[in-house]
Amino acid sequence: MDKKTNVNIDINVTKIVKYACIAGIVIVAVIFTEKAFKEFVKSPSCIKKCTN
Question: Fewer CB within 10 Å, N or C, the chain?
């Protein structure tokens, strides 16, 4: 009773790196957008427009 088990695992490092970079870029973009929006809301030009 010889059982042959054959498992092939293909790891595509290029795809992993590509999607990790894209995720990093999206995270950084969200952080900077959020900070810029907070600064815009605090700015005098927005305060004048929002309160009038």
Answer: N
CB 38 within 8 A of CB 32: no
Please tell me the chain's helix, strand, coil percentages from 3-state DSSP, rounded to the nearest 5.
75, 0, 25
User: Residue 19 has which token pair?
Assistant: 């999607």
Q: pLDDT tens across 5-41, in order?
A: 888 888 999 999 999 999 999 999 999 999 998 888 8
Length of the chain: 52
pTM greater than 0.85: no
- CA angle in degrees (0–180, nearest 5) for 21-17-35: 15
What tokens were used for 31? Answer: 């952080």
Two structure tokens written together for 4: 């042959």
